[in-house]
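We emphasize that the prediction below concerns an isolated chain of 222 residues; any contacts that depend on oligomerization or on bound cofactors are therefore not represented. The input was used exactly as deposited, without trimming of termini.
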Amino acid sequence: MLRKKKEPFLGYKIHTACTEQGIVTATTITRGNESELPQLPQLVEAVLQSGHTPHRLAADTGYDSFGIREYLTRKAIRPYIPVKPTGKKSTGFAYDSKHITMRCPQGKASIGATLHQNGGHINYFSEKDCVPCPFRISCLGECSTHKRVYRNEHTTAHRVKGVKHAMRVRKTIERVFADAKTWHRMGRAWYRGLQRVSIQVYLTFMVVNAKKLALRGSPAGC
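Result of the prediction step, given as a token string:
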């Protein structure tokens, strides 16, 4: 049954960690209206307590948070998490740490900065530099006379290279869910209540893991 995007519904979220081979190592279930962010540290702690020592973690943009990256770094785990899009990108603008300014593609430096309500700063440039600039039409808005560029220092902290490759590896978890939904009827909750749904999920992933481990142990699965 299809539902509209903003239509309320009764549902649950399954937060799961798995290895690159698709073996589920931790999972937790919450109500559908709860955020993903608080669940990641719980999953990591569960994985660590089970005896695994992960060194890398790939997650989608739902976990893009300075706090998450800082937590993973403290645990000696490299975070591979894409940054959430923040609107129109200012291509070619670079931060000049030596002079604590932003520099545009034409080499002009920002002349000041103001605090942003969501953290970070908005660096602004001089009208004297922007008005005669040959790229003014493509760079500025229709009513703007000078450029402003938002920069949040927290979004650049604990950033690592190789996120694109990590996102290809992260698709393993999508295959885990696809397997559970297609062959084990986990596409819907068969019970009411968080505790009963949790039992359904735990048992399902136990079966999924058992199948994969059996395949890996057999000559045909090698």
